[in-house]
Known about the structure:
Blueprint: H1 10-17, H2 23-30, H3 42-49, H4 54-67, H5 70-82, H6 84-96, H7 98-106, H8 119-122, H9 126-133, H10 139-158, H11 164-189, H12 191-194, E1 197-203, H13 205-208, E2 218-226, H14 232-251, E3 262-263, E4 276-277, H15 279-288, H16 292-298, E5 302-306, H17 308-323, H18 331-339, H19 362-376, H20 388-397, H21 403-427, H22 438-447, H23 454-470, H24 472-486, H25 497-506, H26 512-523, H27 528-545, H28 550-564, H29 568-576, H30 578-588, H31 593-600, H32 619-632, H33 636-663, H34 674-705, E6 711-717, H35 719-722, E7 732-740, H36 746-765, E8 775-776, E9 789-791, H37 792-801, H38 805-810, E10 815-819, H39 821-835, H40 843-859, H41 878-892, H42 904-913, H43 919-943, H44 954-963, H45 971-992
Parallel strand pairs: 2-3, 2-4, 7-8, 7-9
Antiparallel strand pairs: 1-2, 1-5, 6-7, 6-10
Amino acid sequence: MTTVPGRRSSTFTRLLRHGFTDPSAAERLLDLPALSSVRTDPVLLDALGATADPDLALQGLVRLVEAEDAAERQTLLDTLITAKPLRDRLLGVLGASEALGDHLARHPRDWHALVTYEATDLHPGVAEFEHELAEADDPDSLRVAYRRCLLAIAARDVCGTTDVAETAAELADLATATLRAALAIARTAAPEDAAVCRLAVIAMGKCGGHELNYVSDVDVIFVAEPLDAAEESRAVQAATRLAAHMMRICSDTTVEGTIWPVDANLRPEGRNGPLVRTLSSHLAYYQRWAKTWEFQALLKARPVAGDPELGAEYVDAVSPLVWQAADRENFVGDVQKMRRRVIDNIPADRVDREIKLGPGGLRDVEFAVQLLQLVHGRSDASLHSGSTLEALRALAEGGYVGRVDAAQLDDAYRFLRAMEHRIQLYRLRRTHLVPQDDPGLRRLGRSLGMRTDPITELNQAWRRHASVVRRLHEKLFYRPLLDAVAQLAPGETRLSAKAAGVRLEALGYADPAAALRHLEALSSGVSRKAAIQRTLLPVLLGWFADSADPDAGLLGFRKVSDALGKTPWYLRLLRDEGAAAENLARVLSAGRLAPDLLLRAPEAVAILGDPQGLTPRSRSHLEQEVLAAVGRADDAESAVAVVRGVRRRELFRTTAADLIGSYGTEESPAETDHGALVDQVGNAVTDLNAVTIAGALRAAVREQWGDTLPTRFAVIGMGRFGGHELGYGSDADVLFVHAPREGVDEQEAARAASTLVAEMRRLLQLPTADPPLIIDADLRPEGKSGPLVRTLKSYEAYYRRWSLVWESQALLRAEPMAGDEDLGRDFAALIDPLRYPMEGLGEDAVREIRRLKARMESERMPRGADPTLHTKLGRGGLSDVEWTVQLMQMQHGWAEPGLRTTRTREALAAACAAELIPTEDAQTLDEAWVLATRVRNAVMLVRGRPGDTFPSGPRELTAVGRYLGYEPGHVGDMLDDYRRITRRARAVVEERFYGA
């Protein structure tokens, strides 16, 4: 074709219009001699333009034509132009599959497989595929015959003759015929083995479910029995050789490529178990050792090759076990484990492109359908199907899921499977990743019928269907439960109360009857409140089921809704603020402490909807609020009641932030810096308690003395309070110090200070709905025998004359928290020489500290406590780390300013920076300290009362594990990890503290 230089030919323009992306290259291909007889035929160009990738289709056609001899070439081209079925099929395949184009270039006569267009050709089954493979007598000829059959399946697929479910079924039927042919080749090669055993091949997974991909492992299980009088061991060995040979025939790569891997890892004991077992051996394993996921896998078991009677016996024998799986003791825990998407092993840059394992992917639908089959199939045989789509249809017909929801999920699943088919068909590679490049996306979109703007249309459709799937737990699991109790869908088959209870139990609810009562109370009626809660509850129920205590979450939501349901802002908050509902669900189902705090004043739920609501308030902000409230109050008791209300609200804010940060949400992952979470809690609770004490101090002074107390007064934080390391259940360790004002009698000042301390403690412990703040002054000089409050001079005299080394150590955590700031600074200046002695500690002092620590370990550990799991006094726990750090502070604080801090982690970091401890040792101690602190916080959050050891109850222990980041069923891993981390920390303590 010649054109005027600088002008494009009319063919170039037509090629562009027909969807070619490289019209110049296409022109060159059309000019080749091989296509001389058809290059100007408009039928050819129109057909190429109708394919997924016209450029690829033309390239494949040229390669095929050039591979033929002259006579066959003309026959092909004549048939191509005159027979529309062949034209659509052949060019459709060449435009969708580079790999099948390669096959046709190697085996050009195989285009004839696309010519026939009869009824049996449109919907072939196993018999037709067996006929096509019948002449294959070695691995290479089997591969060629397999690809020829695959060519026909792909042609029907891309032309729309078969839908995605029919294509998947044809691929499974072809796999069945291929396994039979491979087994026949293996038996022919070893007739002596074939003579002594019966061998059945059981298809599992997608092949068993009649829903295979173009490129997928074919999962199988082998079962064998002796033939005639053969010995069982000999028969099993013979069957193993046959099975292994059959697998190699399919899996090995030869000059003709490979068919697909045959995977037998779903067999009992997986890769560690024998490849072939007898039927009785299979049953013994399933009855005694099998896990829930293995019964889930058996849902799709189907005999496909070998001895048909033995295969049928196998399925008949294991089927009752499958439908009893939901009665197993650990079914709920197993389900909770399996329900979590396994995306941890997907690289971060691939998660959004994964259509199988990613969020909203195929695995989500398949798992959800299988779970409902296991739960309800015990009593309904109509659900006993290996096909995902057939099972989904049966679930809808039985009333187990809504018909509209089932139809939407059917549509989404079909679309995602069609995407998967087209992606794999291109190069016949096993992949579930959506292409990143524009040509790949364009080809994929066009292959699915999107022609105007294929890339944009594809992305929009994919996201829309994935969104439907992401909401599937709400649709499949929970919405039918509401229909069952609220009776809102007339005309639909409804879930019975018994079936609803069974489903709730399977989803982790310990008291399904109570849960159904709560659902009925929340969702029944025609009020606006009931309507909004019917919308919210399916989502909330899923979040509750994700927790360690779904029952508590649902009960808590009912209580909050009963308290606030008539408040317009509450339901609007949950409906309109995306994060509020999920945050509330996480908080209500994570343990007792946070719900208890919330239910004492439910209006605090507004915190969960505020984007800044989970950020702890600064001390200055809280102090301003508290002191203003005290100034407005009529008396000290009402003033401190307001102060304690603020403390309760802020404790709820802190617990909610901690829980949501530890659990994560659908939009934001869990916080991975656990030290940051611990510091946030410690700082927030410390500031809160300091402000509460300041408010009680101001209220008590104002009640009895007006604006001015006769003596200057300060509260010094000690222990975890002074170290900004308070947990939720910690008391506030303090010292009280005062200094008489000028002209005030010392005795009068002392009486005023003592009266003030007594009144503060009374006010902070008055019985109210708000949690009390316990003030502990036992670290004062002379302990419980000494006066509660001393003057600064009295402290100076005592410390100069009587102070012991442990008291100096305790003062390392002393920090002014409330009251007269100048007096607090004076006290800090007084004790600095004691806690950071010049030139460090002498040998006697170090020996005394070590002796005290050893004595504490032997005497203070509670009787019966496991020393490897006690967070405070146990091996490598808080005490070990803190005493090690404090010894370095007392030895080197005089010379290293960074060590002069009340905070353990800060001091440890400073010691590491000063090269007083190796980095690895410092990291080991820090990891153990953070973990032990988090365990203590978790115990308080879960149980609502403090504790230094892991709970003994399984549900509470699981809840602690969830807070620490362990999935259900991994409590043992949590305890093992705790012991391992603290054991390493103890080794550092032995070296750094005891000098071992």
